[in-house]
UniProtKB/TrEMBL annotation:
Annotated organism of origin: Streptomyces poriferorum
Top-level taxon of origin: Bacteria
Annotated protein name in UniProt: Secreted protein
The keyword Membrane belongs to this UniProt entry's keyword annotation: yes
Transmembrane segments: 6-29
Keywords: Membrane, Transmembrane, Transmembrane helix
Amino acid sequence: MTDDVRNIVLGVIAAGLSAALGWLARTYIWRRKLRRKQAFFGLPGNSECLLVVNRDAGGDGAVHRHDVFALLELSALIKDCSAHAQILAHDVAQQGFGERTEFCVGGPVSNRRMAAHLHSLLPGVKINTDAEPGPDRNAFQIGSERYRVEKGVAEYVILARLTAGQEARPVFLFCGQQAITNQAASRYLARNYERLARKHGNNTFCLLLKVVNSQAYGPDVVELVGDVTRAAQAPAPAPTPRTSHRASG
């Protein structure tokens, strides 16, 4: 074998080894990233999860189009984790939580299961569900702070990851003042789950987001108002008892 042929063969072998090592490194990084994503969402490969959807209050049982878009955002995340989703309406999802990851979409008026989750897991969150129009309709009360709706200008949504224990699968809540905010929260989660996983790990958190100028920007411009986990999980304050005053005579 001449020197030229030997150099060519060695070059081919070196290129092959370099390509193989590069492929192995990329595969390792991709798998590690996938495992972290699966752990954060509680979705190991071939697992099942629930997508619990609300009903549009004025749509004769139909699902609002923005909530459909939210489901599509979440479905893409689930597919990326190599998991499978079962879609259930809020009024037929009569089962506990923790065995399967759950994504629950919609406010407590249109989603009974959301109302149950808020009552059980986030007792410090109160939502005005009055049917009559008024400045406090759909307003959030979290601790001592109140967040009112300015439709199309400033609307709020709760994005929460809740667990009932270390081994339990998480429940993700997307509870907004308007349907478009549910979509905004699902998109925010899809774009920022890596940062959220680094900050919170696989622990419980509850974030309050503000959707800015949705009438112009749709669900794309979202601001993080703050982490309200502590206030949202604090027991609701007991009502102040009335004092009875009797006239003396």
